[in-house]
């Protein structure tokens, strides 16, 4: 039978493509009963020095610590002391209050853009608590909890959002794309996926220098489809880089659900298997599970036992950004139907179960955080909001780019000075 003979293929089925579609659209009733919810404490915990292949079953499982009653159970229980738990709770509440106020500020026309991390607060906050302060993070745009947890001034964050004279980045970054070397927070990039190879490269450099600091790279589920993801995975594995690579799987990229990036075929954590890298899949709404997984991966990296890919399984409760309307592609009430609950409520419940918290103290905490954020906003707005910014110091756009400014840019800088009325 000749391959060139069309008669030979007459009865063959027509080729077709599969285009992933989310299970629910606007008007549907969301039902997450098909998502397995393994009991807390069921996942085994290998030693942090174990061979990568021992973790492969954990890429399809789900590391969980907090049970339905708020108790910490199982081998992954990190046994965090109450003071640390209370600090984590405070940081998570602060992030949520901060997000709400900055969202309102954008809607009031005070800035151009904002992105919330509602429902994902435990991931960044618990990670910060589990790692060393001088470790380096290469974040995306929903890890503001890293800065809050490390004591970064809220006023400074707001000045960056407003691009006012208090913005130490001089208005050169989109609002919320923070950067601060002292706090181990690398510049956020709007080109998604770039953080991964940068984190691996930084970790390799740390190892070459004989340093003790590790790096953590962050990416969303959608950006795992970028080539940068795979390049970073290869380099991290081949060179045994002291790095943690996090995939925040919140079910949605901008207007497209995680199936477009391959979530229908396998978990994102399972991608570690093909590279021979240790992998974990973690309940991202369980602050103790996040803490335990990051602590485990940190120990592994610091002991030269290799990198770890961690998938944080969570849900993006809000829109992608203030420029996105999720009601156009998601049904109402989907966030409330998410089976893994609210991370703040779950950590609060755990502290109450320990006898270390109560409703009165929690209400007081929310009031304190709200007052702190309001005061910071008032202070930041003394320096102005985005629409009020003029052309003052416009010539600074030429600074910090070239060691020696090229002649044609010198001419442009001079023209800016002349237009601004300077000699």
Provide key terms for this protein.
5-stranded parallel sheet, 5 strands, 35% helix
List the helices and strands and how they pair.
Blueprint: H1 82-107, H2 121-130, E1 136-138, H3 144-149, H4 154-162, H5 195-208, E2 215-220, H6 227-238, E3 243-249, H7 271-275, E4 278-283, H8 287-302, E5 308-313, H9 334-337, H10 343-353, H11 359-381, H12 407-419
Parallel strand pairs: 1-2, 2-3, 3-5, 4-5
Helix pairs in contact: 1-2, 1-10, 1-11, 2-8, 4-11, 5-6
Individual helix count = 12
Question: Which stretches of 5+ consecutive residues score pLDDT under 50?
Answer: none
- The assigned structural class equals alpha/beta
Helix/strand order:
HHEHHHEHEHEHEHHHH
Binned strand content: 5-15%
What does this protein look like?
The protein has 423 residues and is of the alpha/beta class. The protein is built from twelve helices and five strands. The chain has helices at 82-107, 121-130, 144-149, 154-162, 195-208, 227-238, 271-275, 287-302, 334-337, 343-353, 359-381, 407-419; strands at residues 136-138, 215-220, 243-249, 278-283, 308-313. The protein has a five-stranded parallel beta sheet, with helices on both faces. Helix 6 (227-238) links the parallel strand 2 (215-220) and strand 3 (243-249). The longest helix is centred in the N-terminal third of the chain and has 26 residues, at 82-107. It is globular.
């Amino acid at each position: 039978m000749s391959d060139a003979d069309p008669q030979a293929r007459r009865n063959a089925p027509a080729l077709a493509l599969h285009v992933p579609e989310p299970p629910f659209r606007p008007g549907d009733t969301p039902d997450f009963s098909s998502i397995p919810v393994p009991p807390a404490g069921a996942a085994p915990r290998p030693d942090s020095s174990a061979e990568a292949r021992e973790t492969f079953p954990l890429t399809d499982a789900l590391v969980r610590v907090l049970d339905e009653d708020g108790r910490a159970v199982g081998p992954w229980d990190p046994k965090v002391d109450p003071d640390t738990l209370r600090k984590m709770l405070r940081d998570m509440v602060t992030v949520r209050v901060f997000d709400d106020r900055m969202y309102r500020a954008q809607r009031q026309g005070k800035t151009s853009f904002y992105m919330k991390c509602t429902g994902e607060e435990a991931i960044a906050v618990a990670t910060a608590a589990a790692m060393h302060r001088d470790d380096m993070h290469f974040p995306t745009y929903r890890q503001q909890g890293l800065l809050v947890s490390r004591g970064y001034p809220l006023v400074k964050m707001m000045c960056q959002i407003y691009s006012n004279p208090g913005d130490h980045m001089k208005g050169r970054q989109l609002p919320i794309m923070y950067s601060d070397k002292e706090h181990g927070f690398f510049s956020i990039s709007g080109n998604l996926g770039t953080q991964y190879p940068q984190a691996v490269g930084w970790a390799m450099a740390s190892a070459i220098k004989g340093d003790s600091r590790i790096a953590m790279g962050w990416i969303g589920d959608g950006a795992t489809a970028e080539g940068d993801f795979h390049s970073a995975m290869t380099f991290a594995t081949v060179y045994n880089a002291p790095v943690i690579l996090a995939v925040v799987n919140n079910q949605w990229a901008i207007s497209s659900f995680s199936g477009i990036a391959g979530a229908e075929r396998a978990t994102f954590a399972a991608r570690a298997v093909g590279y021979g890298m240790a992998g974990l899949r973690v309940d991202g709404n369980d602050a103790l599970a996040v803490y335990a997984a990051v602590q485990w991966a940190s120990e592994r990296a610091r002991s030269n036992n290799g990198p770890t890919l961690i998938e944080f399984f969570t849900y993006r409760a809000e829109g992608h950004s203030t420029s996105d309307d999720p009601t156009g592609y998601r049904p109402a009430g989907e966030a409330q139907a998410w089976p893994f609950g609210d991370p703040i409520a779950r950590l609060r419940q755990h502290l109450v179960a320990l006898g270390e918290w109560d409703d009165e103290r929690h209400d007081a905490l929310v009031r304190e955080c709200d007052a702190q954020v309001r005061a910071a906003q008032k202070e930041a707005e003394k320096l102005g909001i985005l629409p009020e910014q003029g052309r003052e110091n416009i010539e600074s756009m030429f600074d910090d780019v070239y060691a020696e400014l090229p002649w044609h840019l010198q001419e442009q800088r001079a023209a800016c000075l002349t237009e601004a009325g300077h000699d």
